[in-house]
């Protein structure tokens, strides 16, 4: 038979036990030796039940508190400012030195009133015993015996500290024995003042508060140093049953318990009867004006200025440092959030979402009983056949009916009646109910997203995840909403196409801002026999059009033809590098050109950030580093950020060209709405609207900041309404945010422009080719040197088709001068005004707001 191995300690114990036994039974004093052995083994067993060698090493933990962690953001002065706290229980550590002596002569003991109240009620002989109060144990035994129940406890403050720090609340003889043992050890290690300080910081006082510091702030909105005698007495009354004696939950029970505290103060000689009555009378005003919900907790008082930011960073930190350390470690978390940016983001997006909810007017499905009424019996049959679960509602029909009637009818009548009666409590309750109901009359809320990233550093400076952070709306949509980007994807596609042409020049297939494409209907026969016919937003077409103008007017047919001309396989590497999709790939079909696949706002914003960085990938970061309570850096995310290589996905020249094209979108095209709020710097961006107006986008940047704004319903099949485009909804919000957020920041240019090698040429506005003597409508365009057109325009047969047009100004900072062989003095057009050509049958959608 296989036997368990015997360890070295077991072998030694067996040998020692044999030696001791032999000594007991040898010699003349067998009875005495036996008695001593029994006594020794009894003491040893008692120690093993009540104590442990580990206890000596755990005593240092007694003075260590679980402290909430604080999240910091940057203010306008570049200084870190608290914006949120993380904790499960509120605790504000208090040093005993902060509790100054009392100036009143109520008693010989002039310690702070909070200390005197707790000593009187919990352990009046605290400073005279050694951890265990034998007199108190005897007194409590007699009192409880006479009462027939546990009426008075015998635990000293030191014992309570031992229980709070090391033990559970289980009521047993073994637990009480360990409590006494640990109390004795604590008295040996710590001075009395330190034990009292630990007690005041560890005692639970109800509503999610731990310690007198947090309780003082929750119950009285005061610091503990500023409490009155009555308020200190309330805190001391909460030590046994905080919920039962809470002044918020049971004011009457609380007042009765506070009387007991004052009686103890009088009995212990800390206060006279007259003084106690005076202080209790002052306290009555607190109870008279008390108007708070019994469900209030310290968690609702938690500092949380920007809930979406707090939640996003919380989820990330739990993965990297753990929840226990985050909630209890007293950490200082330094984020990249800029307070001005975040405030302006919420001011810009949240009201716009509420207005759009009313404008879109999509009502929630209310007749939820219809299925049960019409098909309930049929469902039962199907459930029996296919073993389906029972069809249930989370709440009853009566509850739903009352909730609907209250919201639509009864509440307004209550509000009107309350104006006559003037009841403050009812008025506050109704006001709170009105403000907490974000969507009116069962309207589905239009949701949205705004995220802002610094293109050079990757710092996330602002983040809004929806119409309001509530218990039923905690989705962080910049990272969790997968939606089709629509036309907002075109700049990414065009940048990749122009980059490919610059690296693989082909006069027949080059894609440049001046490349001429046919804007006309398309129709494809798919492999499965279906037909795909992409259309422009307006269903109107302009004939042949330059790529710059096609982006400005968001021509879908041109986007498809760009992809068709270059080839999707040739662009895949660049598109993957710009989007950096994790765990999924870009679909391999032509509909990619119209943004038909799903991206998160974060992913699309990161791709635009790469364009704003001169074609380099950007690695966004939201937290810089984390310090412990002693100021030591325990996690430095900056090192992780620096270790990730920033790859050059497309050339700086391609980034320059798409940036210049997006400037036209903002100034002349579908993105003109961004200028509504007086943005005082150059901006570059693109609108996006998906089929049936389900999503509305604007994504763009300045040299300082890249931002995306998205509008849509969480249910992706619901329309925002006819005409609800990215230019109408998202562009104004983007413009307002950027104007206000960057208001105090100086405008600057892209730092990578100095390295751009771009050639500037005058071309024919009609054909995009080098002008001939017959070309009178010219424009200056930028090219990657390898893609400069070589053909001379010969598309003009007479003067009737010349279009009058004003010359375009340079789009962004003047690029580096080209080499001499690239420069060519172009012939200036005739100053005489040519006749205007007749309107083309394909024109007419230039003024449409896409």
Automatic annotation (TrEMBL):
UniProt catalytic activity: [GlcNAc-(1->4)-Mur2Ac(oyl-L-Ala-gamma-D-Glu-L-Lys-D-Ala-D-Ala)](n)-di-trans,octa-cis-undecaprenyl diphosphate + beta-D-GlcNAc-(1->4)-Mur2Ac(oyl-L-Ala-gamma-D-Glu-L-Lys-D-Ala-D-Ala)-di-trans,octa-cis-undecaprenyl diphosphate = [GlcNAc-(1->4)-Mur2Ac(oyl-L-Ala-gamma-D-Glu-L-Lys-D-Ala-D-Ala)](n+1)-di-trans,octa-cis-undecaprenyl diphosphate + di-trans,octa-cis-undecaprenyl diphosphate + H(+)
Protein's UniProt name: peptidoglycan glycosyltransferase
Superkingdom: Bacteria
Subcellular compartments: Membrane
Domain called Glycosyl transferase family: residue spans: 110-265
InterPro entries noted in UniProt: Beta-lactam/transpept-like (IPR012338), Glyco_trans_51 (IPR001264), Glycosyltr_51/Transpeptidase (IPR050396), Lysozyme-like_dom_sf (IPR023346), PBP_transglycosylase (IPR036950), PCN-bd_Tpept (IPR001460)
UniProt pathway: Cell wall biogenesis; peptidoglycan biosynthesis
Species of origin: Leptospira bouyouniensis
Segments of this protein annotated with the region Disordered: 805-850
Pfam families reported in the protein's UniProt record: Transgly, Transpeptidase
Keywords associated with the record: Carboxypeptidase, Cell shape, Cell wall biogenesis/degradation, Glycosyltransferase, Hydrolase, Membrane, Multifunctional enzyme, Peptidoglycan synthesis, Protease, Transferase, Transmembrane, Transmembrane helix
Enzyme Commission no: 2.4.99.28
PANTHER family for this protein: BINDING PROTEIN TRANSPEPTIDASE, PUTATIVE-RELATED, PENICILLIN-BINDING PROTEIN 1A
Stated family: In the N-terminal section; belongs to the glycosyltransferase 51 family.
UniProt biased composition (Basic and acidic residues): 816-834
């Amino acid at each position: 038979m296989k036997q368990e191995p015997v360890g070295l300690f077991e072998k030694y114990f067996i040998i020692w036990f044999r030696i001791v036994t032999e000594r007991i039974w040898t010699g003349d004093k067998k009875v005495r030796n036996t008695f001593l052995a029994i006594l020794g083994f009894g003491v040893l067993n008692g120690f093993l039940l009540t104590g442990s060698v580990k206890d000596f090493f755990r005593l240092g933990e007694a003075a260590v508190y679980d402290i909430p962690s604080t999240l910091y953001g940057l203010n306008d002065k570049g200084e870190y400012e608290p914006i949120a706290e993380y904790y499960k229980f509120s605790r504000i550590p208090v040093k005993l030195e902060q509790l100054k002596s009392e100036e009143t002569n109520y008693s010989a003991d002039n310690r702070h009133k909070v200390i005197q109240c707790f000593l009187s009620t919990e352990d009046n002989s605290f400073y005279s015993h050694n951890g265990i109060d034998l007199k108190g144990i005897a007194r409590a035994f007699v009192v409880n015996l006479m009462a027939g129940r546990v009426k008075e406890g015998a635990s000293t403050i030191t014992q309570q500290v031992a229980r709070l720090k090391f033990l559970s609340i289980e009521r047993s003889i073994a637990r009480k024995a360990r409590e006494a043992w640990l109390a004795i050890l604590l008295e040996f290690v710590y001075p009395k003042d330190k034990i009292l300080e630990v007690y005041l910081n560890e005692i639970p006082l109800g509503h999610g508060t731990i310690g007198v510091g947090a309780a003082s702030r929750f119950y009285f909105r005061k610091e503990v140093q500023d409490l009155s005698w009555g308020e200190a007495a309330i805190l001391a009354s909460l030590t046994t049953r905080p919920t039962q004696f809470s002044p918020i939950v049971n004011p009457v029970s609380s007042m009765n318990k506070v009387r007991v505290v004052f009686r103890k103060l009088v009995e212990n000689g800390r206060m006279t009867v007259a003084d106690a009555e005076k202080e209790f009378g002052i306290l009555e005003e607190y109870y008279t004006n008390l108007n708070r919900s019994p469900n209030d907790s310290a968690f609702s008082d938690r500092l949380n200025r920007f809930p979406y930011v707090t939640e996003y960073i919380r989820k990330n930190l739990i993965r990297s440092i753990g929840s226990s350390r985050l909630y209890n470690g007293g950490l200082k978390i330094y984020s990249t959030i800029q307070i001005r940016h975040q405030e302006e983001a919420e001011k810009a997006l949240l009201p716009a979402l509420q207005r759009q909810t009313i404008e879109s007017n999509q009502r929630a499905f209310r007749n939820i009983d219809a299925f049960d009424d019409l098909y309930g019996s049929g469902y039962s049959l199907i459930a029996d056949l296919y073993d389906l679960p029972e069809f249930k509602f989370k709440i009853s029909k009566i509850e739903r009916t009352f909730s609907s009637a209250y919201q639509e009818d009864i509440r307004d009548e209550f509000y009107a009646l309350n104006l006559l009666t003037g009841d403050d409590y009812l008025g506050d309750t109704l006001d709170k109910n009105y403000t907490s109901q974000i969507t009116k009359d069962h309207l589905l809320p239009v949701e949205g997203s705004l995220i802002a990233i610094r293109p050079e550093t990757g710092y996330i400076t602002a983040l809004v995840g929806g119409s309001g952070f509530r218990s039923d709306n905690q989705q962080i949509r910049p990272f969790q909403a997968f939606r089709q980007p629509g036309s907002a994807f075109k700049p990414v596609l065009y940048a990749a196409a122009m980059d490919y042409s610059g690296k693989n020049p082909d006069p027949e297939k080059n894609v440049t801002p001046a490349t001429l494409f046919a804007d006309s209907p398309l129709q494809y026969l798919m492999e499965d026999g279906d037909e795909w016919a992409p259309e422009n937003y307006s269903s109107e077409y302009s004939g042949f059009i330059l790529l710059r103008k096609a982006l400005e007017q968001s021509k879908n047919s041109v986007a498809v033809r760009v992809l068709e001309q270059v080839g999707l396989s040739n662009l895949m590497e660049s598109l993957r590098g710009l989007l950096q999709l994790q765990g999924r790939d870009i679909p391999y079909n032509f509909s990619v050109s119209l943004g038909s696949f799903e991206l998160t706002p974060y992913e699309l914003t990161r791709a635009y950030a790469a364009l704003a960085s001169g074609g380099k990938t950007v690695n966004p970061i939201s937290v810089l580093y984390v310090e412990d309570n002693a100021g030591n850096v325990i996690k430095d995310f900056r090192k992780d950020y620096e270790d990730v290589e920033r790859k050059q996905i497309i050339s700086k020249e391609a980034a320059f060209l798409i940036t210049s094209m997006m400037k036209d979108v903002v100034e002349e095209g579908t993105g003109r709405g961004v200028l509504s709020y007086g943005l005082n710097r150059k901006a570059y961006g693109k609108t996006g609207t998906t089929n049936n107006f389900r999503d509305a986008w604007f994504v763009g940047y300045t040299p300082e900041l890249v931002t995306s704004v998205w509008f849509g319903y969480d249910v992706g099949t619901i329309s925002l309404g006819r005409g609800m485009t990215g230019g109408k909804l998202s562009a104004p919000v983007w413009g307002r945010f950027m104007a206000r957020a960057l208001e105090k920041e100086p405008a600057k240019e892209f730092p990578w422009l100095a390295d751009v090698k771009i050639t500037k040429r005058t071309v024919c506005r009609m054909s995009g080719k080098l002008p001939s003597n017959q070309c009178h409508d010219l424009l200056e365009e930028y090219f990657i040197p390898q893609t400069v057109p070589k053909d001379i325009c010969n598309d003009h047969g007479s003067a009737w088709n010349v279009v009058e047009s004003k010359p375009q100004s340079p789009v962004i900072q003047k690029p580096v001068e080209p080499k001499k062989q690239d420069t060519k003095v172009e012939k200036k057009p005739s100053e005489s005004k040519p006749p205007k050509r007749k309107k083309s049958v394909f024109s007419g959608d230039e003024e449409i707001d896409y």
